[in-house]
Design goal:
The structure is a homotrimer of 136-residue chains. Chain A is α+β, with helices and mostly antiparallel strands and 136 residues long. Helices cover 22% and strands 36% of the residues of chain A. The first copy, chain A, is built from 3 helices and 8 strands; from the N terminus they run ββαββααββββ. The model of chain A has no long low-confidence stretch (mean pLDDT 97).
């Protein structure tokens, strides 16, 4: 029994944002055992799972990944969509566009410190579309 | 209802290659709602989803990732299979060996700009084997 | 038909460790066709698939990723949980917390050289909890 919905997230600024509650409020009734996949339909944003408590973790993600995968690197040829565009594509493949979370006893079975991150890699990414698929 | 096939992709040179059409032509009839997993059975290649339009994006992936994870780094001990081997293993775990794509209304529900990338990290990787699993 | 178990892995030192046999001995009877998801409930460890033969590959993972994502980087603000903490969060999102493996003919359908890695990013990570979900 598969259930699936596609939703638009609100616009977020460039950076890493916890969207666990936004996702949970859109989920159908969850089974005893299953899996939820969340897939983002974009090549300049990503989804990940990481620390849900201290905001400095998300700030360090932003600072460190900007340093690791910088704007205006001399090897880039794909530069006409803005200096944040090619780094966004690279980050999207390194972080990933999809998370898969076990469902147990009617809930997303995340660890105590795990939250779902929307990783917005562009300055003006706008509203991002995600598809949530539940398998029972 | 699970369907599964294993196929060999044609040989590709080192680099990033769009294989969306190659995959789509091997898919069984797709349901209204489901998920497709594509898994590559190798440790020196990867699968990802990224920009499907401008070839310079794939060229920049090749240049930038070669710079980020270089050949002949002095820390490498695993050097006897060629200078492209250890970087290939590292890239494979950072990019990933598996993509999971929602199926909606009988089609792979990729975003407008999303294509499936075969990431070939070796000079002579040969024909890569992938298993496609469809869940309905 | 979904089956799911949650297990604790033994404690491992910081580094990359093959846990294929540990996972296989905990799997239920596997079907002809399916998928197994393994999910780690932590933000400072990861799961990946990579080379299962030469131990120097895992040593190079440890050396190279420590260099790529170093401790004590000047951009980090999240420093009060130890110098290995923020690098662990970053590695966890780059490597990922989840692997998805096809099941074929009653077995995990891994390639000849593929093994499941527990990626322990902390000095004293302790016993890590993973949930294994099987879809048939």
């Amino acid at each position: 029994m598969t259930e699936q919905i596609t939703i638009k997230l609100p616009s977020f600024p460039k950076g890493y944002h916890i969207i666990t509650a936004l996702i949970e409020e859109r989920l159908p009734s969850l089974p005893d055992k299953g899996l939820v996949n969340i897939f983002i339909h974009h090549t300049s944003a990503g989804l990940s799972i990481n620390e849900n408590a201290d905001p400095s973790v998300r700030e360090d993600f932003e600072s460190f990944l900007n340093k690791l995968i910088p704007e205006n690197d001399p090897v880039y040829k794909h530069i006409f969509e803005g200096s944040d565009d090619m780094p966004a594509h690279l980050k999207s493949s390194l972080i990933g566009q999809s998370v898969l979370i076990p469902v147990t006893n009617g809930k997303l079975n995340l660890g105590t410190w795990q939250g779902i991150y929307l990783c917005e890699f562009r300055q003006h990414g706008g509203q991002r579309k995600v598809t949530i698929t539940l398998f029972t």
